[in-house]
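Re: the 520-residue chain
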Amino acid sequence: RERLQAKAWPVGDMMALVDLIADPRTVLVEGGLIRLTDEQAKAILALTLSRLTGLGRDDIFGEANTLAGTISGHLEILSDRKNVLAIIRADLLTVKEQFAVPRRTVIGEGDHEMEDEDLIPREDMVVTVTHTGYVKRVALNAYRTQHRGGKGRSAMSMKDEDAITGVFSASTHTPVLFFATNGKAYKLKTWRLPLGTPQSKGKAFVNLLPIEPGDSIMNVLPLPEDEATWGDYDIMFATKSGDVRRNKLSDFATVNRAGKIAMKLEDDDHMVGVAICNAEDDILLTTALGRAIRFKADDVRVFKGRDSTGVRGIRLQDGDEVISMAVLGRVDATPEERAAYVKHANAARRAAAGEGDEEVVAVEAEDEGGDDAILTPERIEQLAATEQFILTVSENGLGKRSSAYEYRRTGRGGQGLTAHGLGGRAGKRLAAAFPVLDSDDLLLVTDAGQMIRTPVDQVRIVGRSSQGVMIFRTSKDETVVSVERLPGSDEDDTEVEIEGEGVIEGEATEIAETPTASED
């Protein structure tokens, strides 16, 4: 390489190309000679011997002339801006002819007032609330369906003294009202709640809402997304002591960050139910000792203020308290028609299940009085179309569905009638009671943090005085503290596989349907 660079080589016909390239590293020597640069010497030595000896002068000269013509063309283009623009125009016209299609994107005037909520996708969530005030939201598809009677799966990580007290499903854009123990209401959209996993702990309410010291969130109510329709609805409150109150839902359209007073409460009282209703609905209150009362919603007048304690909804026995409030559709039917339809429907269900013609006690004799009515097929079809079912679950995990026709309507303020047969394996108290549909799923949670999701259609329909079937097999000293309804189900898988535990699938265990003595 050094000897190649030390020798002066004749340029010959290549001088025109050397002048065209005008490489500042080129060293010209007098007499038409040139010295090779370091790069040129290395390029020559990189050639194989066969290729180097095969190079002819004419081939090299022809390639050099072609290269010189290309360089001259590029320099001519760069010498005038018009030449550059002409080439760009020609290229764009070529692209247009090959790929031009009508514009699919609509370009409109931009909205500079876009809020964070406009960027939030609409998604179904399950919101979980604990006794000590932790909340989180989890995507609904994170929970799989199990058969009733299973052992469930871990619902969330909690402290030893904590327990899950509320679960409900809502869209990310659903407004949610949070009711504190002091009667105040706070409002947030679901997407503002912390997102977690089924096992995560969540976030404390005190870090989300300006809760006053010593208070906690006791009730949570998802609202209709369209705020313009709130004036068509009422909101009904129920307390542990059996009081109820009705307000217009529009009273809560504006809730400041600091909250709004929702209901005045006594020192030892708290809210157990908040629901949206209208004057044509019925209200069902259920107590922990298995009593229930059904009355018209318009039996409770609409209160203009929000600082009263309301009126009496049910008269409680010693040691009893209200555990739930439900809104039922009102159906015009005589007591005799309701009794006849319930017997007919129960007999049809048992026949379809191949259980014979044995009749289930449906309506207690003292409730109705008189003989059953004779129903036409058209009337049976009408009553079937408007029939609702009430699910009741005891603290030991036994549950059942009963026709809402078995809960006769009375005036508010009475002692009610039997809602669930307690005692024995059913336990001494009820955990929950609310209306359900066949397509719904249930989420049951115990005070030990265990949870199970099971289809409603696996819970048997029996008389309201029966104990029902085993839905959740609880351990010793473990009780069900929350039962929530999940509308619909898209899951086809009926098993839950937990890492390290295999597949959990419960057996279908039933408790004999033994109606208790009438207490009405």
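The chain has nine helices and 29 strands.
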